[in-house]
Amino acid sequence: MKAICPGSFDPVTYGHLDIIERAVALFGEVIVGVGRNSAKNYLFETDERLRLIEDACAHLPGVQVSPLSGLLVDFCAEHGVGVIVKGLRFAGDFEFELQMAQLNRVIGEVETVMLPTSKDWGHLSSTMIREIASLGGDVSGFVPPLVAERIAAKVAARREG
Ligand code: PNS
Q: pLDDT class for 15, splitting at 50, 70, 90?
């Protein structure tokens, strides 16, 4: 069955990649859907978030990266996706994801599988990565090398501008 890992991925972290790798192991074929949440301010535009994930997933056969817009269940219907895969870090994630999973099942008959994040990455969030990087901290232990490089370049450009 084809699965989707949807998200903003601003930027993609080792926590996201852990979930994507485990989703491929479970379902064989995974679309990483890169969307835009209008409530969020993004560091990277959609094109760059797509490129960074493509690079980070290049070693994973069975993974395809795609922009995502509109309703997630419509995307699933159009692309033959049968299951949404989400990572859970803590109880707060579950409360939000449960509501989404229930709604997506009602409006689109799509199932959601929630995977507990590996203990190594449970503390990670893209928001924290952006904050650490913007304050001059080292994020190389949390994100792929190209992402760390691109964040450093963005932060430097913002400081100069
Ligand atoms: O968790 P994120 O990073 O905010 O996810 C962003 C995105 C765009 C993937 C997410 O907001 C999403 O799934 N949007 C689809 C809109 C939708 O289907 N909404 C109804 C859910 S019940």
A: very high
